[in-house]
Amino acid sequence: MKLNLKWMRDYEQLRKEKENAELEAERKMEYFASVAHEIRTPINAIMGYDELILREYNDPALRQYASSIRSAANTLLSIINDSLDYSRIQAGKMRLFPAEYDLGAVIEELAEMIRPRAASKGLELKNYVNEQTPRFLYGDCDRLKQCIMNLLTNAVKYTEEGEITFSVDYEMLDENSERGNSQMLLKISVRDTGIGIRNEDMGRLYSPFERIEEEKNKYVEGTGLGISIVKEILGLMGSKLELESVYGEGSNFHFAIKQEIMKMSPIGDFEQLYAENIVSKEKYNTKFLAPNVKILVVDDADLNLSVMEELLKDTRMQVDSALSATTGLELAYKRKYDIIFIDLRMPGMNGEEMVRLIRGKDSDSKSKRINRWKKDKKGDDRSGEHAGINRNTPCIALSGGTLQEMQDKRGFADYLLKPVLYKELEEVLLKYLPADKVKTIDNSSRNKSAREADSRVEKAAEILRRRQNKELGAGE
Predict the structure, then answer these.
(1) What's the predicted TM-score (pTM) here?
(2) Fewest C-beta atoms under 10 Å: which of 181, 229, 300, 381?
């Protein structure tokens, strides 16, 4: 009997300790999420104005400065994302969100992001992509990109001379997916000629905040979380990170993940396509005009509103701005809009509460802010047909959080993660705007000076020349 009582007391103590640990992990995750949002807000403005500089100015020096700003901002974003993901892993909240994606576009984006970093250290970046690799797959491409980018970034950080080799291959599997589609193993490898890793240090590599040979590498940027996060994400994907390394000569990090094949279309000659794409890039031109379109943007940061207005000005759309949800609601009850962009985290009434009022789904609301707003507006024109003029208007969430945080946001047609890039903003606009209000513009003309101002173009042109000379030599 005494043993049973002791066992029960010990069990109860362990249960409470577990609950406290989980609660603490949850608090840390909420804290990091809040910090991430606050940091992403100014980064959104920085990158937005930086994109406007690259869009509107052709001066080579100015464009180089703008490219450096963009690179630094992306580095800061990766640090924020790693910190947030680490807190999410600790809280047991890390999840995958699979969807159809274009593997060719993913590889191109990774190459474009890492090439300037490698070039700044005099390193050559080599891409080897099996031309027969299926291009259209089903999986979590955001987490896949995160894993590969962490490996590429580490390779550049710990390599002082030589090259970085990024390889993509595949292996067909006999089994089909639950939906009856073919499956394959996507094989990724990142090889470098860097400092290498001693055998005795291999175990420490996956520990968070650990940095191998701390004294030697103390000036290397980063949080020390990258590889441990890659390990956790790959574990969720049913894979694991493999490593071969020779101290003083370099390392090879590689993994293989199962992916569903949506179309058997092969990637083709990736290096050639990538180079031609960079060389053929034209100066920014608006793809469409929409002077009859009415847009409402609601964000508590004035800089973010200014960036959105500037990004959209060439489309000639009518843009209204509001610095709070209550001001946004005043406008939404007076004017019919084609799209409403709403920041999720705002002081006072937040974005989710605002969209509920727009949708007219507030009748049984328990939110004090919603009920207070309804009480304040009682008696004026907040009911009937006029109140519902934007009930079916697409509402797009603007979030400084992550894709994972967006999955449970109801009432929104879609979302944009900060920093908002014009390419993604344009895709959302074309997806939800009424077709009869959009006039497509033919941008066949090229702006040569803008293309030549970009150092990536020179690198791409060099790749094309090298490949063409190789082909000529083979022909002889």
Answers:
(1) 0.70
(2) 381
